[in-house]
Amino acid sequence: MPTEMISFLSQLARDPRAVGAIAPSGIPLAEQVTAAIPRTGHPLVVELGPGTGAFTRVIQRRLAGQGRHLAVEINPAFADELARRHPGVEVLRADAGTLPDLLAARELPRAEVIVSGLPWAIFDQQRQREILDAVHGALADHGAFTTFAYQHARWTPPARQLHRMLRELFEEVIVGGTVWANLPPAIVYHCRRPIRR
Q1: Three-class SS of residue 83?
Q2: Residues 115, 55: contact at Cβ < 8 Å?
Q3: Over the stretch 105-116, which tens digit does the pLDDT of each residue have?
Q4: Which residues does 29 contact at the CB level (< 8 Å), separation at least 6?
């Protein structure tokens, strides 16, 4: 069994609600969530909730040694394993809700791309708002934010809250088609042009 799966199952057994998934995200979902990352230039890419690194590998491949990749992970075991396996990624053991402060502490500008693997369905409305406000505050005006939700939970109150808040914060919110190859199937939210009040 791959090391990533062992790590995932270990954390899932320890605290299923904190992990918020039944399996690591698959490559088809990772490809869609990371599609906004430019293949040229030197973008600042922030990854929230990388877990075992399903999106991390694809981000690194897309960046191909260019730009800067910060991964914000609150779970110490996931963060340590991610830092060990991806030395080119700056892994921050921190809360996603503090993202603007994390960038400011490193004297970094707003990110060009923020991708999220966070388990939105387990967050209450206040926690969703806290993290989305942090994303909004840390994203460049020309930047893109992508995240996903599981298809089977799309009509639950937390998923509807997430979609509503995204529409409040971004001028453009596109819901991608279902990624049936993921376990469980998922949909991707592609968000651009943060609304500045």
Answers
A1: helix
A2: yes
A3: 999 999 999 999
A4: 54, 148, 179, 181, 182, 186, 188
Pair of tokens at residue 132:
């989305």
Q: Sheet holding 44-48: strands in order across? A: 90-93, 68-73, 44-48, 111-116, 139-150, 186-194, 170-175
d(CA 73, CA 50): 6
Is the Cβ–Cβ distance between 193 and 140 less than 8 Å? no
Query: Which element (helix H / strand E) includes 47?
Result: strand 44-48
- What is the rounded CA–CA span in Å between residue 29 and residue 25? 6
What three-state secondary structure class fits 168? helix
The end-to-end CA distance of the chain, in Å, is: 49
Q: Which pLDDT score is estimated for 139?
A: 98
Residues of the chain with pLDDT under 70: 1-24
Q: Give the Cα separation of 59 and 147 in Å (integer).
A: 14
Instruction: Encode 120-140 in three state secondary structure.
Output: HHHCCHHHHHHHHHHHHHHEE
**CB burial string 161-180: b at 16+ within 10 A, e below:** bbbebbeebbeebeebeebe
Distances in whole angstroms, Cα of residue 148 to Cα of each of 49, 66, 123: 12, 25, 14
pTM above 0.70, yes or no: yes
